[in-house]
Amino acid sequence: MRTDLKEKNTQVPSNNVHNFLVAESLIDELVKRAFGMRQYAYAPYSGIKVGAALLAKNGEIYGGCNIENAAYGPSNCAERTAFFKAISEGNREFAAIAIVGGPEEGVKDFCPPCGVCRQVMAEFCSPDEFYIILAKSIEEKKIFTLEQLFPESFKPSHVE
Length: 160
Ligand code: THU
Known about the structure:
The chain is built from 5 helices and 5 strands; from the N terminus they run ααββαβαββα. By secondary structure, the protein is an alpha+beta fold.
């Protein structure tokens, strides 16, 4: 069983953008847009500014940033901001999301999506055909399928 899991992971190279359905130039465009969205982040409590760029299947790109709140709980992550913008405008088919985050001074680490955002992705995105692009810069990227970051997820099919 463990061997199966290992094989499955190595079949989907998480660092090789050439093997993915989303063109590399588009990936770079998404990463740039995600970096650009950091300027709008409202993060006075954590100081962590996150930007996201969500690519819909029709080519539309929706930007998002994190929006914090003095009561902490109502805070929204950059990814969910992007998803909710798209969905509230009638777009529900997605291909990929780029995410960048870190302190105001600069992005030093990859910024993986939190569990709540992964759950929102699982509601609308195909596990094997939705790509999550984490970036520290245009050059330093890691790409995962949703299935890799959120296996065995609870999906709409479970409440049918
Ligand atoms: N945050 C995001 O916006 N996306 C992530 O993927 C991880 C965390 C935000 C939430 C909060 O405003 C700040 O980063 C620190 O947790």
